[in-house]
Amino acid sequence: MLYREAGDFKTTYRDDGQTFPITLDRLGYYAILFVAVLIVPFVINDYWASAVLLPFLIYAIASIGLNILVGYAGQVSLGTGGFMAVGAYAVYKLMTAFPEVSVVIHILLAGGITALVGIAFGLPSLRIKGFYLAVATLAAQFFLVWLFNKVPWFYNYSASGQINAPERTVLGWAVTGPAASPSAKYLICLGFVIFAAWVARNLTRGMIGRKWMAIRDMDIAAEIIGVNPLSAKMTAFGVSSFFVGIAGALLFAVYLGAAEVTEAFGINKSFLVLFMVIIGGLGSIFGSFAGAAFLVLLPVLLKNVLVGVLGWPTDLAAHIELMIVGALIIFFLIVEPHGLARLWQLVKEKLRLWPFPH
Amino acid sequence: MDQLLYGTEVLINGLMTGVMYSLVALGFVLIYKASGVFNYAQGVLALFAALTLVGIMEGQVPFAHLINAMFGTHIENFGWNIPAVFAILLTAGVMVVLAILIEKLVLQHLVGQEPIILFMATIGLAYFLEGLGDVMWGADIKTLDVGLPQGISDVVEQTTANWFGYGFFIDRLDIWATIIAALLVAALVAFSQYTKQGRAMRAVADDHQAALSVGISLQFIWIMVWSIAGFVALVAGIMWGTKSGVQFSLSLIALKALPVLMLGGFTSIPGAIVGGLIIGVGEKLFEFIMSSPDLAGSWFGFTISATENWFAYVLALLFLVFRPQGLFGERIIERV
What GO molecular-function term can you cite, just one (chain A) (predicted)? Predict the structure, then answer.
């Protein structure tokens, strides 16, 4: 069984349109799902969950969201941190106001609220384009963070200005709060990741995704052939913010447990997610995962090598990490502006011809 | 009447702050005009310049922290102090070297890429320079003193006290910053209007290909523009560094310069200055009105504070909805 389409006969249109047309890819995908859902939860420990897996899954959702906006619809946003904060504060308010409702519903609702906020801040995109838009979305970032800092209603008038996630259970397992086990946290994040990737993949290859891409490639031309820029841009902002909001809600409720808005959702978060999208690959769901994995693993790896192996002080390691991340971003942009997803695609093209490339 | 006087004082201070914003925005505009690169790293350039200046003045050993960690030594200082003027010249030299390196290592390989990719590259550059600055000179907060006068100006306070019966508090540093910024702008305008290189720079800004075809070296112009931007960053770094210490937050003034650019338009030097003044005055006055119990408190029944964080962006956002190319920007013409 070689890695190619030949011999794999598609007998229906449904088959022909599947996401993984190559048998090996499909099997690999099922294998990864199997391992992620049925094996990892039993072997996961606290360190792996909190240092690698949880941030990876949560940022994967955020970068899928941002990738829809930047990679598919071509609207650059630097307000991701602000929108994640909306998700976090929305889920906090919902959790404390309606304790009897399931936290899963709260997280989805938080995504919905973020979508509305995203659409409101996306409205100027009809008039403003390119860099001007990117800078305009900074207004969302700074305004939202300020709002959550200054209006005590959002943090329930707590003295410290922090928000703390109360304990909530799903099917009897605690998923938020200090009592939650690593595998429960992992599974709820994984559930949302699979949901997000599935929805995003199917949206982007359907009519709405094609509209987004038409707007991205040339908005005036798209308008002339009948794509309504208002609905296309607003849906892009809405869907994108929905996922970003879910990521923010999970980041706060499941991963951090307690959050202070300027620290957890500052401008750096916006850039981090944007880098994930760029390094992973614009306009690719796989790229969102690859980018998130890369930027979550890199600091862990560097820290282990510089502090653990070489024994350098942590602050020095942090600065060197900044330099390496910066240099890597430039390196990737020079060598492969289409990101890790494009590299992966090239590997697959090579594999398809192997072992007879001519 | 009192409120009016306070308001005037706030207005004047806003103008001074606006000049400082313009100073940073100017660096952006120069690079954007000449190479079409939206240089996010401008703020970090200012931080890096200020760090280097302090390091040179105090005779710090570059990379001391790293060397000590690697070899277990305890090097900290060369043990000399270099006078400010000489140190500024040396730092300007460092910025030129940096400009050449940026051109050779980064920009040259990205010619012809989409603007957004170039923008991302400068964000990467910003991260790199931030890390480099910290590794080279250490991350602690440093004080910078190149001999600029500081503190409240007595003359202004006395005069205004005599005129209005209320003395205005205005920092002497702000006054000097305004003067220096005005001189810098005048010098830049003179340079771009009356010298050969300046004319070449404007030609490149107008049309890259046409400039190439009449024999202007793009590489040279880019190095030159980045050097000038580095120099502007140095001036901005000196001003802000003297005002609030040389530390990481210095690089965040780049973020404040962005709305200035949006208001003024990315391609216009006068726009950067007018935009800076509008933002500076606007945010100070808005903060003054909204946080004062006598004004906002009696008008709206509530007061809000720390609006300076977002006011500039929201103002720019609202403004752009009505005029997408900014005040002085070139009209955006779109064709299919």
Answer: branched-chain amino acid transmembrane transporter activity
Q: Which residues of B touch A273 (CB under 8 A)?
A: none
Residue A124: which of B69, B305, B320 has the nearest Cβ? Answer: B320
Tokens of A139: 């207004």
Q: How close is the nearest chain B Cα to the Cα of A161, in Å?
A: 15
pLDDT in tens, A336-346: 878 888 888 88
Q: For residue A163, what are the β-bridge partners?
A: A259
Cβ atoms < 10 Å from Cβ of A300: 12
Q: What is the model's pLDDT at position B14?
A: 83
Which CATH number is correct for B2-322, 1.10.3470, 1.10.10, 1.10.150, 2.80.10?
1.10.3470
In whole angstroms, what is the distance from residue B209 CA to residue B34 CA? 12
CA distance B40 to B43: 7
Extents of the domains making up chain B: 2-322
For residue A230, report the phi and psi dihedrals to the nearest 5 degrees. -60, -55
Testing the interface with B: which of A329, A336, A338 to mutate, by most B Cβ within 10 A?
A329
Mind telling me how many Å the CA of A351 is from chain B's nearest CA?
A: 29
Of A138, A221, A330, the CB nearest to B336: A221
Confidence category of residue B333, pLDDT binned at 50, 70, 90: confident
Collapsing DSSP states into helix, strand and coil, what is residue B201? helix
> Can you give the C-alpha Rg of chain A in angstroms?
21
Q: Strand ranges (DSSP E) for A175-250?
A: none
- Nearest chain B residue to A318 by CA distance is B131
Helix axes B2-35 and B196-206, enclosed angle (nearest 10): 80
Nearest CA in chain A to B106: A330
Q: Which of helix, strand or coil describes residue B113?
A: coil
| Complex ipTM | 0.80
Q: Is B69 on the interface with A (CB under 8 A)?
A: yes
pLDDT tens track for A16-36: 878 887 878 888 888 888 888
Measured between CA atoms, the residue of chain B closest to residue A127 is B321
* Alpha-carbon distances of B16 from B47, B226, B270, B281, rounded to whole Å: 20, 26, 16, 8
pLDDT of residue A1: 59
For range A182-203, the mean pLDDT: 90
Chain A nearest CA to B245, separation (Å): 20
Residue B29: which residues within 8 A CB-CB, separation 6 or more?
A: B261, B264, B266, B267, B268, B269, B271, B272
Which among B278, B274, B325, B207 is positioned nearest to A130, based on CA atoms? B325
Checking if the pLDDT of B302 tops 80, the result is no
The pair of structure tokens assigned to A245 is 């909001």
What does the pLDDT read at residue B199?
87
User: What's the pLDDT score for residue B1?
Assistant: 64
Query: What is the nearest CA distance from B79 to chain A, expressed in angstroms?
Result: 23
Q: Which residue of A has its CA nearest to B264?
A: A132
Q: What is the pLDDT of residues B94-152, one digit of tens each?
A: 899 998 998 888 888 887 777 777 888 888 898 898 888 888 887 777 777 776 777 67
Q: The whole model's pTM is what?
A: 0.86
Q: What are the φ and ψ backbone dihedral angles of A121, each rounded to 5 degrees?
A: -80, -15
Which contiguous run of DSSP H or E holds residue A121? helix A103-122
Torsion angle of the four alpha carbons B22, B23, B28, B33, in this order, in degrees rounded to the nearest 10: 80
Q: What is the DSSP string of B131-164?
A: HHHHHHH-SS-B---SS---SB-HHHHHHHHHHH
